[in-house]
């Protein structure tokens, strides 16, 4: 798994609208991997990131959620939960592999990366804690790293 200081990989995946998105991570970015749409912890985590998403936007930090679900599942999940940031479909695990995130039977591990200037700034393993509050922790670190009040 990528660690702080490692170069961020360039990845391409389709979002919930079917658009192809290529990320090079020159700009501050959060990429969080989650196991599956519409499951308890994953829904909590998505809502947690959505709650603080305007603050990430104000700071100039993009947010992307990634799972092995397909575009259609992401579209349904984003609509049901009011998710305004991109959810990237990674059905073959290519994006997860680029980050070194483990996959098992169609699910990714739960891990979050804070990236900037093309490098990994921080790595988080919210699987070890309650997904609620995780987004705020990442936001606080992004503020410390990239400025802002």
Automatic annotation (TrEMBL):
The keyword Nucleotide-binding does not apply. GO terms for biological process: cell redox homeostasis; cellular response to oxidative stress. Keywords: Antioxidant, Disulfide bond, Oxidoreductase, Peroxidase, Redox-active center. InterPro entries: AhpC/TSA, Peroxiredoxin_BCP/PrxQ, Thioredoxin-like_sf, Thioredoxin_domain. It comes from the Archaea. PROSITE patterns: THIOREDOXIN_2. One of its GO terms (cellular component) is cytoplasm. Residues 2-144 form the Thioredoxin domain. One of its GO terms (molecular function) is thioredoxin peroxidase activity. It catalyses: a hydroperoxide + [thioredoxin]-dithiol = an alcohol + [thioredoxin]-disulfide + H2O. PANTHER family: AHPC_TSA FAMILY PROTEIN, THIOREDOXIN-DEPENDENT PEROXIDE REDUCTASE. Belongs to the peroxiredoxin family. BCP/PrxQ subfamily. This is thioredoxin-dependent peroxiredoxin. It comes from Haloplanus rubicundus. The lineage of its organism: Archaea, Methanobacteriati, Methanobacteriota, Stenosarchaea group, Halobacteria.
């Amino acid at each position: 798994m990528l660690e702080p200081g490692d170069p961020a990989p360039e990845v391409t995946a389709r979002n919930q609208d079917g658009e192809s998105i290529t990320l090079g991570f020159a700009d501050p970015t959060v990429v969080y991997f989650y196991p599956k749409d519409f499951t308890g912890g994953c829904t909590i985590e998505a809502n947690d990131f959505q709650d603080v998403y305007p603050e990430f936007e104000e700071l100039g930090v993009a947010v992307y959620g990634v799972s092995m679900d397909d575009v259609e599942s992401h579209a349904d999940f984003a609509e049901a939960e009011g998710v305004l940031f991109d959810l990237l479909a990674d059905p073959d695990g290519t994006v997860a592999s680029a980050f070194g995130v483990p996959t098992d039977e169609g699910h990714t591990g739960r891990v979050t990366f804070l990236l900037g200037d093309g490098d990994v700034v921080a790595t988080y393993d919210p699987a070890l804690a309650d997904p609620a509050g995780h987004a705020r922790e990442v936001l606080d670190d992004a503020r410390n790293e990239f400025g802002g009040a």
